[in-house]
UniProtKB/TrEMBL annotation, chains A, B:
Organism in which the protein naturally occurs: Gouania willdenowi (Blunt-snouted clingfish)
Upper classification of the organism: Eukaryota, Metazoa, Chordata, Craniata, Vertebrata
Keyword Cell membrane set for record: yes
Function: Catalyzes the production of GABA.
Source domain of life: Eukaryota
Location relative to the cell: Cytoplasm, Cytosol; Cytoplasmic vesicle; Golgi apparatus membrane; Presynaptic cell membrane
GO biological process entries: gamma-aminobutyrate shunt; gamma-aminobutyric acid biosynthetic process
Name of the protein described by the UniProt record: Glutamate decarboxylase 2
EC number: 4.1.1.15
Any Pfam family the entry gives: Pyridoxal_deC
Cofactor(s) the record lists: pyridoxal 5'-phosphate
Main location: cytoplasm
Length: 450, 450
């Protein structure tokens, strides 16, 4: 069998008998060959891109250590590194002396679910033993532009998606505080108990930052837990130039912040930060005596596993910690600032360029730049409905061609009544001005005949 | 600063300025130096031990690929490998043609929580939108020896820990089916709706296998979802000699099976297998249009992300798939059989040895061997209460000394009215008969003066 045929059959069924080492290497090479090159500076498809060499080395060391975060006993160094890093992140949020709590969880959706779980427990601690039947009907609030994990969490936690009330966003994707207050009052009138507001710092599509100060005033007024989903935008706290976009975050009860997005830490690395100490432990602990023995010979407060929903928990901390050591806070700041600069460059290049239309006005708030590309054929169509129909099909075709040529990758989607548009995001510090120029030319090259 | 002083301060606060590359290497060396050597053949402390070289290489490749399981578009190879591997696992469970569904999740606790979520949705699909207020009070059933994640799951899902009814286990830790039926009837009489039974295949402490056939008969009779938590014991399905212990597993609605435990796949690698196709998707999907676009240029059934609770999902499949290729099914079988043989060897050596008492009679069912070591000083104590009080303190002291000497590590815990005892488990195929001999001698050396 020659190499190519072998490559094509590497996906064969799993066998009883072992393969040869040669076959294993062929499988590895084929896996890398057909993998998407997420580290490539022209891969703009997701919020997590790039490949930091120190982060990669740290992940390799983590794999080699092959241990578990549940007890200090089996992960003494990693537990301590998690402690110092979470504390540092809380300081950056602005909680005094970095006090509070937190955990690294398997992704932003789970971090957000943790926040909702804590909010419910804080208001109704009996829910842990008695379940939702002991609790009035709850209502959670989040912007119509927020991440779908808020609804997923509500479904899983037995709250129900209908109890997640979507608040209107303005043209640029920011939650409208007046609508939040109106909907809270409305829910109360209907007998619901508002318990959770999830503000978004950096929405997935527009990159919008909800007005946190105004939202926190409303949360305080109605005694509702304020969560900030900063999975995408939280990292801007590292930048002196951009952190004002999260002003008010220090008033939140909990914050999701994913270093695996804008800080280019290898996947996965997501933190939930919580202002109140001890709440996570009370909410989730089950005192399994075969894991959290009370007569160990060390300080049991280092056994942080019982505050997690998980039992075993993957070590996600080392790559973030080591990258932080290697870059310093100023290194992260520089790479974040650079990505935002690239976005602004893209925005400036296309906002008045023929064939482009911006999805909303104004400079990018995060690195998201949302736009339509209009091929010459539909640029001057007079029938607006016809034009819209055609335009809807443009981005999927260009994207498919990008993938076939293997030159670049960028995401698209519809939103509300807006037909398919491109959403550019930049989180890879390896990207350059030339890559942005290339993207524009490539879209035009691949789309001009449509 | 000399090397030692530097090592001791490597845990310093995170700084604004970057550290030198030398400092980074010192941090890496220190992290490995103070790490617990989980791959050492005398590390018996957890259910996940060892370090498979092919698995490690696969994890390194996974880190390098740095992608996300949510869409085929960004993880084409890994999505396909997950598909073929889950199918193979379902075939091994015994579901016809490997039909069904499944997912790799961040650990057994989350896999068990998925199962409970699916069981609830299957019986009351309206819970997704309307929450638990649309549902009668539910009751879940599991053995008193089961894993604490069943209660954690119930707390999180808004079912409440009081709705988890603990069924009596016999002396060897197996759930007693008659007690299960009695408690189901009792719950029904009290107006609860039984919706979920979690049988355990390989309990955490005793390694007991619940009688699945008898349990499945009861589940069928009362129309209750049958879950098998085989996080620890599921891998015995790979062994022709031991798979009878899971007879009846093919009747389950869902099965948790963690290859990161008895198959020595690097952490994390946990699968939930589900008999009914499509249920996970219906239960969890939220149709986020910015991720799961409906006008992509490939078969959308490969976009498996919307059936997960998570949005981004770590690639856990490649290490299992590559190890399977490298060993074949018979390779896994051989290493599992060997670990069970080592356990039986340990059991035979200590069951009649002076100074040892077994916690329960009979040969080990899994690799768990539970025993007390009685130092000479308390071996002949007549006052039973006094003896118990002393004995309770023995295991913690011996364990602390093991860790101080750095020679071996084994877990201990109390259970019910039984004072602290050792729980040996063997999941590292690198362990040998000599390591078992060493353990016995080491316990005696470290404990003889107590």
């Amino acid at each position: 069998m020659d190499g190519d045929t072998k490559t094509m059959t590497f996906l064969q069924e799993l066998q009883d008998e072992p393969a040869t080492l040669d076959d294993i290497l062929i499988s590895c090479r084929a896996t890398l060959k057909y993998a998407i090159k997420t580290a490539h500076p022209r891969y703009f498809n997701q919020l997590s891109t790039g490949l930091d060499m120190v982060g990669l080395a740290a992940d390799w060391l983590t794999s080699t250590a092959n241990t578990n975060m549940f007890t200090y006993e089996v992960a003494p160094v990693f537990v301590l590194l998690e402690y110092v890093t979470l504390k540092k992140m809380r300081e950056i949020i602005g909680w005094s002396d970095g006090r509070g709590d937190g955990i690294f969880s398997p992704g932003g959706a789970i971090s957000n679910m943790y926040a909702m779980l804590l909010a419910r427990f804080k208001m109704f601690p009996e829910v842990k033993e008695k379940g939702m039947s002991s609790v009035p009907r709850l209502a959670a609030f989040t912007s119509e532009h927020s991440h779908f994990s808020i609804k997923k969490g509500a479904a899983a936690l037995g709250i129900g998606t209908e109890s997640v009330i979507c608040i209107k966003a303005d043209e640029s994707g920011k939650l409208i505080p007046a609508d939040l207050e109106r909907r809270i009052l409305e829910a109360k009138q209907k007998g619901f108990v508002p318990f959770f507001v999830s503000a978004t710092a950096g929405t997935t599509v527009y990159g919008a930052f909800d007005p946190l100060i105004a939202i926190s005033d409303i949360c305080k007024k109605y005694n509702v837990w304020m969560h900030v989903d900063g999975a995408w935008g939280g990292s801007l706290l590292m930048s002196r130039r951009h952190r004002w976009k999260l002003d008010g975050v220090e008033r939140a009860n909990s914050v999701t912040w994913n270093p695996h997005k804008m800080m280019s830490v290898p996947l996965q690395c997501s933190a939930l930060l919580v202002r109140e100490e001890g709440l996570m432990q009370n909410c989730n602990q089950m005192h399994a005596c075969y894991l959290f023995q009370q007569d160990k010979h060390y300080d049991l407060s280092y056994d942080t596993g019982d505050k997690a929903l998980q039992c075993g928990r993957h070590v996600d901390i080392f790559k973030l910690w080591l990258m932080w050591r290697a870059k310093g806070t100023i290194g992260f700041e520089a790479q974040i600032d650079k990505c935002l600069e690239l976005s602004e460059y893209l925005y400036n290049k296309i906002k008045d360029r023929e064939g482009y239309e911006m999805v909303f006005d104004g400079k990018p708030q995060h690195t998201n730049v949302c736009f339509w590309y209009l091929p010459p054929g539909i640029r001057y169509m007079e029938d607006k409905e016809e034009r819209k129909k055609h335009l809807h099909k443009v981005a999927p075709v260009i994207k498919a061609r990008m993938m076939e040529y293997g030159t670049t990758m960028v995401s698209y989607q519809p939103q509300g009544d807006k037909v398919n548009f491109f959403r550019m995001v930049i989180s890879n510090p390896a990207a350059t001005f030339e890559d942005i120029d290339f993207l524009i030319e490539e879209i035009e090259r691949l789309g001009q005949d449509l």
